[in-house]
C-alpha cells in the first residue's frame, strides 16, 4: 500500500495518508504566545486545513488525543471551543490528558486520526 506524506520536513510530516486512513502529527497553534482560547482556535484551524489537504474534514475524524499543559486551568475553555468546533452528528473518540509539552508556551497539542470519505 502506498503512503502519501504531506507537508514533509526532515524530521516528520504533518499528514500521513495510507489508503483512506489519515494521521495528523501533533497540531498546535502557530502563535504560542496567546492564551488557551486563541491557541485552541488556531489548533482547530490547522487541523481543518490539513484534513482538507488530505481530502477529508472534521466530520470524518475517528479519534483525537488532546494534550493540555494545565488541565485544571484550561480544560473548560478548551472544551467550550471543542463543543463549537466539532461536528455534533459525528463526534470522534477522544482522550484528554495533562502533559509536559515540548515548549513552555505551548498550552495545547492535538493528534488526529481520520478517514477520507468514500
How would you describe this structure in keywords?
118 residues; 6 strands; single chain
Q: C-alpha Rg, in Å?
A: 14 Å
Structural class assignment = alpha+beta
Morphology call: globular
Q: Spell the H/E element sequence.
A: EEEHEHEE
Give the total of beta strands: 6
Count the DSSP helices.
2
* Major beta sheet, strand line-up: 1-2-3-6-4-5
Helicity range: 25-40%
Strand percentage, roughly? 25-35%
User: Can you give the mean pLDDT?
Assistant: 96
Main beta sheet:
6 strands, mixed
Low-confidence spans: none
Terminus-to-terminus distance: 17 Å
Could you describe the 3D structure shown?
This protein has 118 residues and is an alpha+beta fold. 28% of the residues lie in helices and 35% in strands. A six-stranded mixed β-sheet has the order 1-2-3-6-4-5. Helix 2 links the parallel strand 4 and strand 5. Helix 1 packs across helix 2. The chain is globular, with a radius of gyration of 14 Å. The protein starts with a strand and ends with a strand.
What are the SSEs and their pairings?
Layout lengths: L2 E6 L4 E6 L2 E7 L8 H18 L7 E8 L2 H15 L7 E6 L9 E8 L3
Task: Give a brief outline of the structure.
With 118 residues, this protein is of the alpha+beta class. It contains two helices and six strands; from the N terminus they run E-E-E-H-E-H-E-E. The chain has a six-stranded mixed sheet.
